[in-house]
Design brief:
Blueprint lengths: L1 H10 L6 H19 L16 E2 L3 E3 L5 E5 L5 E6 L4 E7 L4 E6 L5 E6 L4 E6 L4 E6 L5 E6 L5 E6 L4 E6 L5 E6 L4 E6 L5 E6 L4 E6 L4 E7 L15 E10 L5 E9 L11 E9 L11 E2 L19 E6 L5 E6 L4 E6 L6 E5 L7 E6 L5 E6 L4 E6 L11 E2 L4 E2 L8 H11 L29 E4 L2 E4 L25 H8 L13 H14 L21 H11 L34 E2 L28 E2 L21 H8 L11 H12 L3
Antiparallel strand pairs: 1-14, 2-3, 3-4, 4-5, 6-7, 7-8, 8-9, 10-11, 11-12, 12-13, 14-15, 15-16, 16-17, 18-19, 19-20, 20-21, 22-23, 23-24, 24-25, 26-27, 27-28, 28-29, 28-30, 31-32, 33-34
Length: 671
């Protein structure tokens, strides 16, 4: 105010006039308003109001001048100068960095490293890791309290959220948060934390002061429709959770899976964006954005453009527009929330492979999109929120984020094919509907049982897929290229290929690339068990269970070898896997009334016939993470598997309740 008095004295010496007093009052009020709103007198400094935050693979510095990006499978993070469009640093961190948070002073970056099991502190200026914390198994999501003193971290396998002291790097508190917590969001005041249970479509709310659970909600199923090509199904795989700028509601990006329709690419997997009340957690089901409804961008012929696998959502600063990223089909949708909330624009097939995260510039005029498989950054320019007819536009070529790729060219192609539903780039999928990852969430399971021509089939994990013998629940495939039948019959791709003939070289290249990626030891590693002791050993109960497994219960008879399956023994005289060897298919009393015989397929020269009720032995490594169980998903728990098995499935009829519990303890701890 001394500055203001000097200004008045210098500019207006006649202080006695009424005009001066009015002018001075007006100027003083304007100046006071400017200062109290955080603006410098000359407009040289603008303090952003506190805003809700969500975990993401890409975050911006407090001043918006730099971006920080987690380069997943390359085990680095990149620092990008926004204006110059340059990577100023690439910093080595632990295995599989997933999400980031930045300290309020912009000096420290916090990184969840999923397969290293750590949160890492990175000194931005020095460009190196300066400390770590171990919050749980497979840390994934991370957000930071507004004052920068606390970190909240979800641990995917442990089923927990940890509160970590950002200075001392100590885990202060840990609470249970569903089975597979992933996406996190924090209110602007830091008072409420939202946590999504990835596969279940559940969201929990916690009071951060005490980590008391305030409530839990579950996304509703979208009702069945007569037209099976219309959006419907069970809500699952919540990829992102974002609070609106006003904090009154939050959106979730997820899938809908139609489990009661035979698998066909146009009728089973649908994208969805759901809207929930921030205070109560109640879902506004009428506001859900689904394909052919609010998600209905038309092409130049007036036909609906299919999009798939939503991965992120961000809002304009004024909350008038929402931008949704479709990671599978690689599209950006724009929703005008003041004009009915329907998709008003789509950028079809963004440059870059598998976009998974976004961040917006402070002024709302630029969007930065992180592409996880091509390891680059796409710039999108945005119109002013009040601009009539303004369009979002890709601005220039993507910026390369890494100096060198840890995957070779074949592995990179395979990973891109696994996650991509972009039909223009990927012939394995039809009309942008679905990718391998649409059912095999994160390469593993979606905890759902789908309807097939053979009967109900529990979606299996791809963990150790090439080390566990024959493929499919009935062991009807012995070569990975046999999945041409899945590609054609379920995913809608490669329709021009005759599966009875040798695979054309250019198409074989695709299957070889997928196999090369899936064979990587760290593509889908065996899940580390949260049921073991703190030092990773079997508990006493599990040791007793192991003795039962190998002895009285006779489980090891079929769950043999290092892979814990006898399917690896199904070989021919040449020592190679063959569907002709049916000695290791078993009737364990689990046949379903809707299961059918299998007449074989063209790729197998129709010699791979299968009788209903005979099944291939699945591996037990990491089995705790693959519920529900059995070929039809009819056993919700491992206890259910054992108690209903009698002596068809091992020798379990004489096990006491205590022995069953010991056996289950061992099964849950197998890695």
């Amino acid at each position: 105010m001394a500055l203001l008095r000097s200004f008045f004295q210098y500019r207006c010496p006649n202080k006695g006039s009424r005009g001066f007093k009015l002018a001075a009052s007006a100027i003083a009020l304007a100046a006071l308003a400017a200062f109290t709103s955080g603006c410098g007198w000359f407009g040289d400094r603008q303090e952003a109001a506190p805003a809700p935050v969500s975990g993401s693979s890409i975050v911006a510095s407090p001043d918006g001048k730099r971006l920080y990006v987690a380069n997943g499978d390359t085990n680095t993070v990149s620092i990008v100068d926004v204006a110059d469009r340059k990577v100023v640093k690439e910093i080595a961190v632990g295995k599989e960095p997933r999400e980031l948070a930045i300290s309020p002073d912009g000096k420290t970056l916090y990184v969840t490293c999923r397969y290293a099991g750590s949160v890492e502190w990175v000194d931005v200026d020095a460009g190196r890791v300066i400390g770590t914390a171990k919050p749980g198994i497979e840390p994934y999501g991370i957000v930071e309290s507004p004052d920068g003193k606390r970190l909240y971290v979800s641990s995917y396998r442990s089923g927990t959220v940890s509160v970590i002291d950002a200075v001392d790097r100590k885990v202060l508190q840990q609470v249970k948060a569903g089975d597979n917590p992933r996406a996190l969001a924090l209110t602007a005041d830091g008072g409420t934390l939202y946590v999504s249970d990835y596969l279940k479509g559940r969201t929990m709310r916690f009071r951060t002061a005490t980590m008391e659970k305030l409530g839990e909600s579950r996304l509703a199923a979208s009702p069945d429709m007569k037209d099976r090509k219309k959006s419907q199904g069970i809500a699952n795989t919540v990829e992102q959770l974002r609070l609106t700028p006003d904090g009154k509601s939050f959106w979730e990006a997820h899938l809908l899976t139609n489990t009661d329709t035979p698998i066909q690419f146009e009728e089973v997997i649908f994208p969805a964006l759901s809207v929930l009340d921030a205070e109560s957690g109640a879902e506004d089901t009428k506001a859900r954005k689904e394909l052919f409804k609010a998600i209905d961008a038309k092409d130049k012929f007036g036909k609906s453009t299919i999009v798939s696998n939503p991965t992120d959502i961000v809002f304009s600063p004024d909350g008038k527009k929402a931008y949704a990223l479709m990671g599978g089909s690689e599209d950006l949708l724009v929703f005008d929330l003041n004009r009915g909330g329907r998709a008003s624009q789509m950028i079809h097939h963004l440059p870059g492979d598998f976009p998974i995260g976004m961040v917006m510039s402070p002024d709302g005029r630029e969007l930065y999109i992180h592409n996880a498989n091509s390891h680059d950054l796409t710039y999108v320019s945005l119109p002013a929120s009040d601009e009539e007819g303004g369009r979002a536009q890709v601005d220039g070529k993507p910026l390369r984020l890494i100096a060198a790729d840890r995957l070779n060219a074949q592995q990179r192609l395979g990973k891109t094919l696994f996650y991509s539903a972009n039909s223009d780039d990927n012939p394995l999928t039809g009309n942008n509907w679905m990718s391998c990852a649409s059912c095999h969430s994160d390469g593993e399971v979606d905890q759902l049982t789908l309807t097939t021509g053979k009967g109900p089939r529990n979606v299996p994990s791809n963990v150790l897929a090439f080390e566990t013998g024959l493929f499919m629940w009935d062991g009807s495939r012995d070569d990975f290229t046999d999945y041409i039948h899945t590609v054609q019959g379920e995913m809608g791709g490669l329709s021009e290929v005759d599966p009875a003939k040798p695979m054309p070289a250019d198409k074989q290249k695709l299957f070889d690339a997928l196999e090369a990626y899936m064979r990587m030891p760290d593509a889908f590693p065996v899940p580390q068990s949260p049921y073991r002791t703190a030092d990773g050993k079997l508990t006493a109960a599990a040791e007793r269970g192991k003795a039962l497994f190998e002895g009285k219960a006779q489980c090891i008879t079929c769950h043999a070898t290092d892979a814990l399956t006898d399917s690896v023994k199904a070989v021919g005289s040449d020592g190679k896997q063959t569907t002709a060897n049916t000695d290791y298919l078993h009737d364990v009393g689990t046949v379903n009334k809707t299961d059918t015989d299998y007449a074989g397929d063209a790729r197998g020269k129709f010699e791979n016939k299968r009788q209903r009720g005979l099944y291939d032995t699945p591996t037990l490594r990491g089995i705790y993470a693959t519920a529900p169980y059995l070929h039809d998903g009819s056993a919700a728990t491992l206890e259910d598997v054992i108690k209903r098995a009698g002596d068809q499935h091992g020798h379990t009829s004489e096990l006491s309740d205590k022995e069953v519990q010991d056996l289950v303890s061992y099964l849950k701890q197998i890695e």
